[in-house]
Amino acid sequence: MEADKNEFALALKTWRLRSGLTQSQVAEKWGCSRFTIMRAENARTVTWEMAYRLFAKLSNELKEEQLNG
């Protein structure tokens, strides 16, 4: 479980930086707080519901990236 959190944290931060977005911009785009993005990127605890939501959002962003480029 801890490895999953770390892998997701790395994937989220990598996508965000590659996209040229700040944590605040991602939070606004995804409808959560900057602190939630910060916690997720640092593999800190977020609720199960938020973890699922962030995973779904990142999955959609990565699919979009593949389709467009």
Which structural traits does this protein have?
single chain; 69 residues; mainly alpha; 4 helices; 80% helix; 0% strand
Please characterize this protein's 3D structure:
This protein is mainly α and 69 residues long. Helices cover 80% and strands 0% of the residues. It has helices at residues 2-19, 23-30, 34-41, 48-68. α1 crosses α4 (48-68) and α2 packs across α3. The longest helix is centred in the C-terminal third of the chain and has 21 residues, at 48-68.
Structure at a glance:
With 69 residues, the protein is mostly helical.
SSE-based structural type: mainly alpha
Largest sheet report: none
Gap from first CA to last CA: 32 Å
* Residue-averaged pLDDT: 94
**Series of H and E elements:** HHHH
The count of DSSP E runs of length 2 or more, i.e. the number of strands, is: 0
How many distinct helices?
4
Query: Unreliable runs, pLDDT <50, ≥5 residues?
Result: none
Assembly state here?
A: single chain
Q: Portion of residues in helices?
A: over 70%
